[in-house]
Write a structure and sequence with these properties.
With about 170 residues, this protein is α/β, with parallel strands linked by helices. It is about 30% helix and about 20% strand. It has a 7-stranded parallel sheet with strand order 3-2-1-6-4-7-5, sandwiched between helices. It is globular, with a radius of gyration of 16 Å.
C-alpha cells in the first residue's frame, strides 16, 4: 500500500543548512525551492535581490510551504554572507575551474552550512565565489553544462543531509 504524508513514518529532523538564493527571480523556481527546503527541513531560505516575486505566482509550486518554511528577503547578498561567515561554512553550487565534484566533497564536521545558489541565467557571481569556503558542482554527463537550479539544489541537499545523518 502506498503511504501518504499522514501514514509515512519519516522522522522529522531539522538540518543545519541555510539556502541563499542570489537573484533567483523565476516564480515557479522560488515556489519549488520552498518545497525542497521543507522536504529537507532546512533552517532558513534567504532570497537576495530587489525583485523577488514571492506571491501568488509561486504558490502553485510551493504547495503552501512558504507558510512554515523560515524565509526572508535581503537586498544585498554581501551583507548576508558577511553575517553568516563567522558561524557557517559557506559553499556555492557552481561549476568552476576549481570546483569540487559534489559526490566526493566532504563537509566540515559540526559546522552549519550555507549553500549559495546563483542567478538562473548567470550562476554565482565571481564576487560571491571569492567569499566561499568551497565551491561544489554536479557532474554533467550529457550535452548541457548545467541544470535547473531546483534540480541541482535537490541533489546537493540530498548529498549534504546524507553526510549530516551519518
Amino acid at each position: 500500500m502506498q503511504l501518504t504524508h499522514y501514514t509515512s513514518n519519516f522522522k522529522k529532523q531539522k538540518h543545519p543548512i541555510t539556502l541563499i538564493c542570489d537573484n533567483i527571480t523565476n516564480a515557479p523556481n522560488i515556489g519549488s525551492l520552498f518545497r525542497i527546503a521543507d522536504a529537507f527541513n532546512i533552517e532558513e531560505l534567504i532570497f537576495c535581490g530587489d525583485n523577488i516575486p514571492i506571491g501568488k505566482r509561486m504558490t502553485k509550486t510551493s504547495r503552501s510551504t512558504e507558510k512554515y518554511v523560515t524565509h526572508r528577503i535581503e537586498e544585498k547578498i554581501d551583507d548576508v554572507i558577511l553575517q553568516l561567515k563567522e558561524t557557517h561554512q559557506i559553499i556555492a553550487l557552481e561549476i568552476t575551474e576549481s570546483s569540487t565534484e559534489l559526490s566526493i566533497f566532504k563537509l566540515k564536521a559540526k559546522k552549519p552550512i550555507v549553500l549559495i545558489l546563483g542567478d538562473e541565467n548567470f550562476g554565482v557571481s565571481e564576487f560571491v565565489l571569492e567569499q566561499c569556503d568551497a565551491v561544489v558542482h554536479i557532474n554533467m554527463y550529457g550535452n548541457n553544462s548545467s541544470m535547473n537550479v531546483v534540480q541541482a539544489t535537490s541533489i546537493a541537499l540530498y548529498e549534504f543531509t546524507k553526510q549530516l545523518n551519518f
